[in-house]
Design brief:
heterodimer, A: 860 residues, mainly alpha, 5 domains, 8 strands, 3% strand, B: 471 residues, alpha/beta, Alkaline Phosphatase, subunit A, nine-stranded mixed β-sheet, two-stranded antiparallel sheet, 13 helices, 17% strand, globular
Chain lengths: 860, 471
Amino acid sequence: MSGRRCSIRRGNRVAALLLFFAGAITAADTHAESPKPPTGRTTKVDFERQILPIFRARCFECHGPKEQEARLRLDVRRIVFSGGETGPAVTPGDSAGSLLIKRVLAKDEDERMPPEGKPLSADEIALVRAWIDAGAKWPKGVGATIAEKRHWAYVKPTRPALPTVKDTAWPQNAIDRFVLARLEAAGLSPSELASRARLVRRVYLDLIGLPPSPDEADKFVADDSPAAYERLVNRLLASPRYGERWARPWLDLARYADSNGFQADQYRSTWPYRDWVIEAMNDDMPFDQFTIEQLAGDLLPSATVSQRVATGFHRSTTCNVEAGVDPEENRVNQVVDRVNTTGTVWLGTTINCGQCHSHKYDPFTQRDYYRLFAYFNNTPLEVKLTSGVTYDFFGPKMNVPVSQDQSSRLAQIRRQHDTAGKQLKGAMAIATREQSNWEKQFAAKTAKPSAIARIVKLPPKKRSKKQRNQLRKFYLAQRPEIKLLRDKIAKLKKQIDAAAVPTTLVMVEMDKPRATHVMKRGNFLDKGERVEPGTPASLHPLSSELPPNRLGLAKWIVDANNPLTARVTVNRWWQEIFGRGIVATSEDFGTQCEPPTHPQLLDWLAVEFIEGGWSMKHVHKLIVMSATYRQSARVSTELLERDPLNKLLARGARFRLSAEAIRDNGLTISGLISTKMGGPPVFPPQPSGIWRHVGRNAPKYATSTGADRYRRGIYVIWRRSAPYPAFVNFDAPDRASCVVKRSQTNTPLQALTLLNDPAYMEMAVGLARRIATDKRDLSDRERVEYGYRLCVARRPNDKEAEHLLNVYQRELARFKTNAAAAKKLVGKEPLPKDISAEQLAAWVYVANILLNLDETITKG
Amino acid sequence: MTPLEEAKLRLTRRGLLQHSGAGLGAVALASLLGEGARAAKRSPLAAKQPHFAARAKHVIFLHMVGAPSHLDLFENKPVLKKYDGQLCPQRYLEGQRFAFLRGHPKLLGTPYKFTRHGDSGIELSELLPHLAGVADEMAMIKTVHTDQFNHGPAQLFFHTGFPRFGRPAVGSWTSYGLGSQNDNLPSFVALITGSVGGAGNAMWGSGFLPTLHQGVEFRSKGDPVLFLSNPPGIDAADRRKIVDSIKYLNRQQLLDVGDPEIETRINQYELAYRMQTSVPELMDISKESKQTHKMYGTQPGKASFANNCLLARRLVEKGVRFVQLMDQGWDHHGSVFSALPKKTRQVDRPIAALIRDLKQRGLLDETLIVWGSEFGRTPMLQNDRAKAGRDHHKDAFCAWMAGGGIKGGVTVGKTDELGYYPVEDSVSMHDFHATILHLLGMDHERLTFKFQGRDYRLTDVAGEVVKKVVA
């Protein structure tokens, strides 16, 4: 790591200053090297007339009203005596022991304050010392006073009372009381209820990430019982598709991918962790347990396989195995990533600043950072020198047990494989014996000159190695039993690979703990003070009963007193559903965050989450059951002007689906989707040349066959240097680092993807076949309506339906005069019964339009 | 559409325009980006004013991936040559980590002849005969240094100013800071020859910036832009009809729900349609003159660095802000003296041609050319002499710039007699980045993006403009 990384504007002098405030030991060391300080006089000194002007002239630039480097303000009495980050700057009565004096006397120029301009004069220093030694009298009212107020996010949330609202009929649950109170205060009222067709599609997409079929939509639209919606919600929450949909944002946080990243970016098997997340969400595993198992499942007493698989969360870091890598540097970078990611995901805190220096805005010191680092530091190296200068990834992994059935099946295939191997050996021996005989016959009966004939004619000793091999290959090809056995062996080998015991990456604690030191300016080679595991003092206390390892940390994180975890978590869900968090800066709840739009609602949800047994489904249900959620997304010009970002929630959310959801949605609409769950990643069709040579690795993209082509996006292979291109175009990250909020862009590349990607054309053909054949005895107009409803659940209005009907009829007429064009469009599958190529082609045309509608790729 | 509906739509639009100032639809985009009302006032890719008068409007950024040997191209070190084969003095090795070198390595002088060129007398080795002809356009920096000595992290540092993943590349920062000058093309284009460097797509990635600032790769095989061509059975006329239908139906939705994002979507489909024509035209170099092909050494239809140089000119002509060329194959741990000449033969002529071509078209003044790599190579020998190579060297290496705002012929910085450490005017990667932004009219301390509660910069907390290269 660079020694120059630091997040404060002025380079070295600030870094020096921070080193000082990072810990008293540094200062003491400095002091030990300093000449013996002159003794201060103990005469009476007038603070306001004599001392404050010195501070003002020489210190305020960085430690005054405008700037508070290291959170020290020398114009505020309380801060001078209690300290910013690491204790008091002034200890009354003890000038020699006061940090302020140590720093102004420091011998090292990098340490000495002030960092610019001349040092303080001897007289000035003597005055300040005299003032301190005389008890550092600071009259009340002198200097500035600032209220001591903790940032709201560091105070444990309590359940707020529900606000009173004028319109008592609207709220469906507590969420709505908070939202409505804010709207009423702003003089706004909520939007009407979304139409039932739009609502059913919205809640499907939000809870399971797939659209409803027209029949499912109909069923809901037709069910006018008051409990219909809740029944629908319950059904969706219980669907196995729910975990698949909600694992996606979690895997963005976990920077889960199926490759190492960096130079070689090889495949790594860690998909059992991905399946663990999906299952945990489907099981509604309480979030505290969900947290503990991922951070420290391996350290739980008699940890189960599942609990160890869960620790794949922190093994999802990138790993650099390029030749010449420093394995320890790589390990340190991985630990840094684990600390930073933990800070982001569970604390909503930019703890990463602490790698190089204490946080500039939030109450986290560099020491705090390395105490957290210590929790993650007992990990083995994950890169090993394998030969010469080649390094390989070898980090701890475990076998994931398979069922009894699978393992006996595997043993059986292995036996067959061994037998076939032996048979091949025997067959080869016979073939070798018979080769010279065969050569004679071959020479006798072959009249035409050929390369092989020429070789056969040569005496065996005159044949080159290449010729011998060529002849041998040709000869063996003449022996069907050899080919048969070889094919059989290859097939069995494939089966063995497929059935082999999968491995997954897991966290492992080393027997002998590593010592953790503060890394000066973040440089892992520049070790500072040694630190022990511990949590930031500015947050809730760490129980002394907790073990000083990851398990202790995990339990501290899910302690009900933690002010952050529950808020940060519910906020991310809110963001996923409404497109914007209650705290818009969902990655940062520190003092620089955007203030919550509905602070009380956030607290209410956080408390409800904890008291509801950390149930994710409970919170999701509350959200989607609210009247707030069920509003129409229609927006008037006035409302758009008033609240363009929909901060106040006077309307329903409307925004584009995520990359994976767009594909899942298209696959469902077109009837192609496979709902097979779990297992190794799949390789849907993508353009050639995406997986090109990267570094030393030249991997092959073996496009999946059969149903695997149409599995949900969550199962698509994620290679960091080349993620699935249709996902990249829709803002999928590379998963090399933790992402809390994906971008939401609207680009021409997205249009090109949906218009032209062969995968989407395949979907268009699938959709066309459904339109043409799903229902019998429909008019063309009714088929247009059916296609519309497959895509967006609602019925088209007359204009929409008429337009598409015209398109269909126009194109049908055209294809009738151009059969060749129709053939190209309909794909290779046999035509459905009673449908002509021209008809199907015209429906493909319509389907291509439907799959490209803004509404089709938008939740609204 | 009925007159009533038209009127309603106009009304909606007017309302939006009042709010959004420029880009219709930008409001919604900004809302989804969570950028608030400030950003909501303009389309994110609209051309923006720089902080001060720009010296260059475009950048062509040439990355020799793998790191060429500055000691065989730009740094003439007679002392190194004199002590060729001797043990490297111990003081150079203390506190150093090397990617490959172990034990006590020997020094390795260059076998190549160095000559001064042009009025300025910039010294170049005989491996760069064509660049020698444009020496007076170049500002040579001899003291660039980086923090990283492995390719992946160093490449990230070279492009994003940070040695790990997650930060935007210089081109993304440029797109973010200046927007686009061409509605039909991306603002940041990447062109690649050979395999991709270890840092992968992150070298043209947008990090925490909105992804519309990420570099779009124009490929030399298959569709130049992914999914650009129509599928079988759909021709240009079909595509026009289909896009028109999508527009009509999207408009119906816009009338119904009023979300301005739909208007943006409609515009993006129009843009996509135009790209289907504009990009293949742009990528087709067959109509360039014979003279031009001769000058660059280009062959239409072939994937080569030379072709990419010519494409870079064509992209800049069309207003693309930032063109990044990456050429793999410069990592010469062994046989540097046979491998390096092969590589320089591939790039020397087209780069010189690019400079001349831009100049004759009057574009050199507004186009900054940057040549560099993630690090340099050691003055010490790696492997035995028969397969002499050089290891990664992070403490001093060369980069040069030419074109917009550059003082041609100047040499900045001096290294010690081995070319090991800077002794004068050392230039960090942050300084290097600050200089590029400066020439584009941007103050690297003011070009910030708020993320995780902090205003991030390309140059983090460091960076000083290398004034000596600025004209």
